Amino acid sequence: MRKFSTSARRWLLAACLALGVAASGWLMPLAGSGESPASAGQLSAKGQILSLEKISKLARSYKAGEILEVELEKKHGRYIYEVEILDTRSQVWELKLDAKTGQLLKMELDD
What we know:
By secondary structure, the protein is α+β, with helices and mostly antiparallel strands.
């Protein structure tokens, strides 16, 4: 059995952890290039934004269908959830909701 030096073991452990985290999606944004799930969870826990569960229910109340993608972004000093929903006619809708209140800001067919 081959022995590794302490620094080599640390490097291997770090590489394995990085691959595991990347594969699990823990550090990936909700979708696209927005806030990470970790920062979204912290903001939700602090009451600064609605949880993903609440925003999903609200989005479906505005437009029935299957949620395809959710992204949290900060625009002009406020957090916005962008939600893509596939309706029963196979059309994809993009909804923009205020992340703190859930107010519908915009809804349009996605190209």
